[in-house]
Amino acid sequence: MSLSQKIRLKITRKIKYVFRDVRHGLGFYKNFYQSARGSRILVYHGVCEHDHLKFNTLFITKKTFESHLKFYKERFNVVSLDDYYQQKFSDDKFNICLTFDDGFANNHKYVLPLLEQYQVPATFFVTAIQAAGYDILWNDFLGIISKYGPAKIIFKGESYLKNRHNKYVSTISGVKLAEKLRLYGFDEKVEMMKEFSPLCPIKDYKNDEDHWRQMTTAQIKELSSSPFAIIGAHGYYHNDLAKIGINDAAEELILAKQYLENITEKSVNSIAFPYGSYNDPVIAAAKNAGYKQLLSTDFSNEADKDKTEMRERLTINPFISVNNQMYATVTGNYE
């Protein structure tokens, strides 16, 4: 697609969003939601008080999330992940299931009280990064460095420059540093964090903690004790399980499950693959580890739609209004 085509597409989409907001305000979509049937699993990540796009494009504000919950309670039927898999759906409303990836402490701080207030269930997919001695995921660390760090860095002898989106890109291959690191195991990511930690002492930026800090074991346990929260796994180190060796991936799947079950004293039956990335060997390894619910974002191939353990999810879009998000929730796309 050419640059001019991309620009036209972007403008057209914005016009659609504005037009849809106006029609929502006039009440034209009332019948649309009343007649909507079907189901969708949604995936959230971080929730913060403000400046939700500071380091990535995955966060929304607490105010927006509460607006989502109000809409869900009024128009949709919200079910737990277990009920979703068992297809315990309403015949009179569109059914949705809420999930949260990455295990941010802000999920415990902001999301849990709202779930309990509105009596809405959700599943939280958490890593075992605390067991590895870290309270931040490697990709969040890199995002902070990309925000506060210099215009140029050198890693493993290769130079990287910031692009206009604050992403470090190789001057040789044009590949982003984050994409390169996804090809490796955790050792290389530790090397990156140790090398670049002097560039950004994140502990000194207290106002940024909601954007990166992981839940403690105590917070995971408390979250698990709520009748509105279920804990699932999200890998051990937040590695891309389809890109590292399958033996390493299989070990991570087992260790992450054991870690979370030791904390919660409950069975952990679900896994959301980090980055939505998986392949057939990863699926087999996850099933062998004892996971019964395997979640991605988009299926890698058509055959996965017929696998009873696999489910797709729709990622929340932080750039659009609540009305447009709700419309996309029903249609399954952002067009």
SSE layout and pairings?
Layout: H1 3-25, H2 30-35, E1 39-44, E2 47-48, E3 60-61, H3 62-75, E4 76-78, H4 81-85, E5 94-101, H5 105-118, E6 122-126, H6 138-148, E7 152-155, E8 158-162, E9 168-170, H7 177-181, H8 186-196, H9 217-224, E10 229-233, H10 246-264, E11 270-272, H11 280-289, E12 293-295, E13 310-311, E14 314-315, H12 322-331
Parallel strand pairs: 1-5, 1-14, 2-3, 4-5, 5-6, 6-10, 11-12, 12-13
Antiparallel strand pairs: 7-8, 8-9
Helix pairs in contact: 3-5, 6-8, 10-11
The CATH homology group name of the largest domain: Glycoside hydrolase/deacetylase
The CATH level-2 architecture of the largest domain is identified as Alpha-Beta Barrel
SSE run: HHEEEHEHEHEHEEEHHHEHEHEEEH
Count of discrete structural domains: 2
Task: Describe what you observe in this structure.
Helix content is 41%, strand content 16%. It is of the alpha/beta class. The chain folds into two domains: 36-134 and 212-331, Glycoside hydrolase/deacetylase (TIM Barrel); 138-207, no CATH class. Strands 1, 4, 5, 6, 10 and 14 form a six-stranded parallel beta sheet that branches. A three-stranded antiparallel beta sheet has the order 7-8-9, with no helix packed on it. A hairpin with a 5-residue loop joins strand 8 and strand 9. The relative contact order is 0.15.
